[in-house]
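To assess whether the prediction recovers the assembly geometry, we first specified each molecular entity separately, as shown.
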Amino acid sequence: MSVKNRNKGLTRVREIYQDRSCRVKELKAEGKKVMGYFCIYSVLEMMTALDLVPYRILGDIREPITKADACLPTVVCPFVRSCLDLALKGKYDFLDGVVFGHVCDVGEKTAHIWNIYLNPPYFHFIDTPHTVHKAAVGQHKELLKEFKKTLEAFTEKKITAVGLKKAIKAHNQQRALVRELYELRKPDPPLISGIEALQVMVALVSLPVEEGNELLEQVISEVKQRKDGPQKKPVRLLVWGSIIDDTSLIEMIERLDANLVMDDTCVGSRAYWSGVELTKDPLDGLAYRYLVQLKCPRTFREVTFGETKKDYMADLEGRFGYLRDYAKEWNAKGVILQSVRYCDIHGYEVPGVKDYLDHVGLPNIYIEHSYTEAALAPLRTRVQAFLETLG
Amino acid sequence: MTDEKKKAMNRLQTMYPLRALIDEMYKRSVEAGKAGKPTAWCMVNWWEGDPIVKAMGMETVYPENYGAACAATGAAQAYLDRSDSDGFPTHMCGYARNCIGYTARMMELGEIPPEAPMGGMTKPMLLVGAGTLCDARYKWFQVLGRYLDAPVWMLEIPHPGVREFMMEGVSEHNIKFIVEELREFVTFLERLVGRKMDWDKLEEITDDIIAINRLWFEINELRKVRPCPMHSRDFWTCMNASLYPSGDLKVSLDLYRKMYDEVKSRVDNKIGSVADEKYRLVFAELPPWHSLRFFDQLAERGWNFVIESWAYHPPKPIDLSKVSDPLERIARHTYQWLTGYFENAFNAGEYWGYFAYPYLEYAKDYKCDGAFLHPLLTCRTATNHLMLVHDRLMKKLNVPSLVVEGDIVDLKLFDPVDAMRKAETFEEIMDHYKKVRREKGFDW
Amino acid sequence: MDGGGRIHARVVSHTGAEHRRLANKVMEEVLEQANLPFDEISYIIATGYGRMNVPFADRQITELSCHTKGVVSLYPNVRIAIDIGGQDAKGLKISDGKLIDFVMNDKCAAGTGRFLEVIASALGLKVEDLGSISLKSTNKVNISSTCTVFAQQEVISRLSEGAPLEDIVAGLHDAIASRVVKMVKRLKVEPDVVFTGGVAKNVGMVKTMKDNLGCEVSVPEDPLLTGAIGAAILGKEITLKAMAKGEFIPRKERRLEEVTFFK
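The predicted structure of the complete assembly is given in tokenized form:
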């Protein structure tokens, strides 16, 4: 539901990007409940079906981490530490509850630490399996049934099949709209910059799904007609890796004479690239999509289940082939692989991804950063040098 | 001094043959490789996959243990350097980097590197990964595909939250999931090795492992008394018969029986593992394998380490006699290891039920005066819970903690001289909290 | 540098704190040496850390690309170039005269010239003398500290234990070389290998780099200038290309006057 006299399109996007919680705080004042979550493994549809507003927990690269050091060692993912730090400083006090998936082992442990130190009114941990085996999908469905129980107990309402299907349709609609927006990054120059695209993604995870859909429609229409779009640059890039929730890294790249036209990151395309199939029991479609179809290195995939001969290139093709397709469709000439320091999930993948990209002839560079603004300066030289080798 | 200085630490005699089992494990694996018999590299999988792999006649060796061995003998650095120069991040698990470097070198040479300690690890036919507790332990085997043509099987075990665990039906579907996956694992191995599973053998091996762990659990229960008859050093040396169930399990059972007798005899005669037990300590999590003599020095000051390393301990025993399917016995046994403390944790309002909460029970049951916490630079998994443990031990039990940093393969990071200095100061703190606990009505 | 690739003047100067003022000063000096007025310079490229602080430059290009150009012009068969400067160390992988991969250490002093400066100061020696001292060593000391600060402490204690000065200095050189070589090995080293940067003027470092790499290493006559040479070559190429096409040479509006920023 939109409010008259509110800004629209990219202006509204920028507003929300600057002050993420502005809308959910208004909704809270109207009596709505807001549910926080990390990463893309918390099932949003189930929350939407109960009229809860899912709100993605993000960090702040400008906020020095002080309180989280009492709970988490410094040698773990700085993004997760930042999120916990903000929570300990009260920045997430407006959340009525949190839902965490078993996204990675630091994420899983932080979930329990969050529960212990912040004592949220509602807490649920979905122990997302790590493989895509048939038994794992079945297990995932059972886990979602558990989640359903605790949500229903908390809200004192029931999730009906009808309600859930309606929620699935709304979230699928958002995914389709995001893909439509991403199509507008294919032209040369793209109609929307990497910075703007990220701002849109951050805005989407700060709004209820219907409002996000409305905003997307405005943005798509605005972008299609705009005359002030990004300038054409000599190099078009794809970025891969761990979470990017702040535009500073993208700004650094785009200021160096490149257009960032596509991404494989979780605030970006990973959350939107596959829809939920509307199965008879909606939990089946949800269990499948949220485990098998989400592409994140935390999930262990084999090319052929139970296949006894391992072929390295076939394995890489199975795991990373879609990157080649992205580069082709979005006409990206180079790939920036980035991850935060201490991210094991992406860190272990890097040599394999590099091998694959070298194999298919896509120039690439790996940069590791520490999720702070100060970390960007030395990276600029590396990225610039990379662009010079492409030029 | 002409007389031999009396050693402050009193090691168990039965420790020695148990310690030797590890060397035999590496030898067996290398010989099996030479004879063309099927071999596997396994992550520590807490008996979820081991019985099945053994029943299929495969020799197993554990690269995590190998990482510790390479670190202790100084061979690790070359392998770490190789891993770094091949583009793997330097913050990764030291054992993983060691293994990657070792594997790269082995495949380049076409044989076990001549300088490899313990005779090396033979080229495996299978990599058994496990996501238990730690992501590195499946990602690492996945990346070995860059060097080694061996399939990876990923063993999974559910990690429910404490509250979720207490919900109706949760453990049932968790067990069902594990069993289904194990059935697939059996089918996969039958195809790989080219023969059918010997179910009788699997039954026997499963029961042997459960018996070994039960006995090992009882031995550790004996340590609750004053003075404590068995030091952590003996635990760490002897745990391999349980954690790395390689070789003839009947031999392991027998060695643990002998060990039980020796520890029981010490209890009956009030013999402690340390000459003059002044302080009782709990250690978390992974020990500094290369600097274990440090504990001998602490023993001279009366420090007895009475309990340690939750992750290495066997499960609290449960009755599995009515479970006819060996795969289900395996599943329940491993699940019990991970979740055995959850119900108590729930009742105590502690929501991290494995790794962290058990230390509250340890400190209480083993009457600990202090905790020695050892954060590790490249092992996040064994470090994440330490701050919470520090906090809870103090808040709930008035037990103080000493924090001394190190790493699993970068041995320079643990400074025994500095640690000793800290330890001396810590004694005053432990004395203080003994008084505090007495005043508050605790019974130790 | 002129259109034929001949170098007319060269200036090397300490950076100090104010890049912009220095850039002006260096420009003035080199113009004087070449006996040319500012307006006759066709194209100016700035490179290095201070490249954003050269207001009269037409373009900024990274030192990685510039070093590559410079080294290739001096050693056409180069495959690996290693540059160790005062505050960073770089490895460049070159194929057919083009940069194809690189590694950089700009976070930690232990593998850079800074390490030598700190230790020289602690030992009361001049940085320029360290190389020849190290060559006198017959039994180098192993410096195990990974951190410059701790290495300093380690050096003092080894000295007080009676270790000969040249053995300690040799050990320090070895410590830097092994760190740098470890980083460069990520590029898969093959000959020809060229060593540049201020630290390459140190004969002891040249020797220990060879030992650590296990192969021969070439050092240009003036190892501090390869970046600037490369930048000049790139500028020449841009200018000649534009002239050949009859195109307007893209230049910034230039003024060579003192920067008022800090006044």
